[in-house]
Amino acid sequence: DYVKEAESLEIYEKNFSKYSQYKVPKVYHNYSTGKVLVMSKESGLEFTQWLRNNPSQEERNTIGGYLLDLYIKEFFENKLVQTDPNPANFLINEDHQLVLLDFGATIPYEVSFVKDYQHLLRTVFEGDSKKILEVIESLGYLSEKESVETKRKFVEFIKLSLLPFEESAQPFDFSQIEYSDEVRRRALEFTKKIRYSAPPRQLIFLHRKLGGIFLLMKKLGVKRDLSHYRKLIIEKDYDQF
């Protein structure tokens, strides 16, 4: 649906025009239709190509920061997320801007969803497994009919997912293989046991974006203190569009 994608592209251009570190193509409505999307041609190297040029660690860290900031701005501030984090959807141009491409999988989020999700994250950071499970069930992320073992594994998985933001893990090394392997193992254990729950579509796509961002950070070999992002996630109120 190129008409819808053009609308998303235009909103993104408006949302990110005030940030010098990002570049969004301009859509040309006079030449676009439901089958053809015409936009400005943007220069730059695709993410993987850019890495092949062996950028300095400082440059890698800079782009990594742009990616993390992008996720915060998309979900928490704009409530509109491009949920396809394919490396080919990001260019790095000569001005070291992150060029954002392909808005066909863009999903809007209600303020209520963002606030509920933020409430869950705050609860997870508090560390009380019983309270975490209560919030998970109240939000409909997991059915009460699931077994005690399934519930336990889901709570463990959620806590592990937020480990990079814990104070004791700073600065977090995204290149460590052990963490990625453990996340995959725990996720597989949980999905094998689940029987009655289907996670919300919006949650699936949101986590696809988050997982993709983490994978890109891993490719960048970034080691970064995430305390700032933890504060943005749990302390700020995102109660309006």
Structure write-up:
This protein has helices spanning 2-16, 47-52, 57-78, 111-126, 129-138, 148-161, 177-193, 201-220, 227-234, and strands spanning 22-23, 45-46, 80-82, 90-92, 98-100, 106-108, 172-173, 223-224. By secondary structure, it is α+β, with helices and mostly antiparallel strands. The strands form 3 sheets. The chain has a 4-stranded mixed β-sheet. Strands 3-6 form a two-stranded antiparallel sheet. The mean pLDDT is 93.
Could you give the order of strands across the largest sheet? 1-5-4-2
- Outline: globular
Query: N- to C-terminal separation?
Result: 24 Å
Which percent band covers the strand fraction? 5-15%
Rg (C-alpha, Å): 19 Å
**Based on DSSP secondary structure assignment, what is the total number of beta strands?**
8
| Unreliable stretches covering 5 or more consecutive residues | none
| Helix and strand element order | HEEHHEEEEHHHEHHEH
Q: In which range does the helix fraction lie?
A: 40-55%
**Helix count, DSSP H or I runs of 4 or more residues:** 9
Largest sheet: 4 strands, mixed
Indicate the structural class.
alpha+beta
Overall pLDDT, averaged?
93
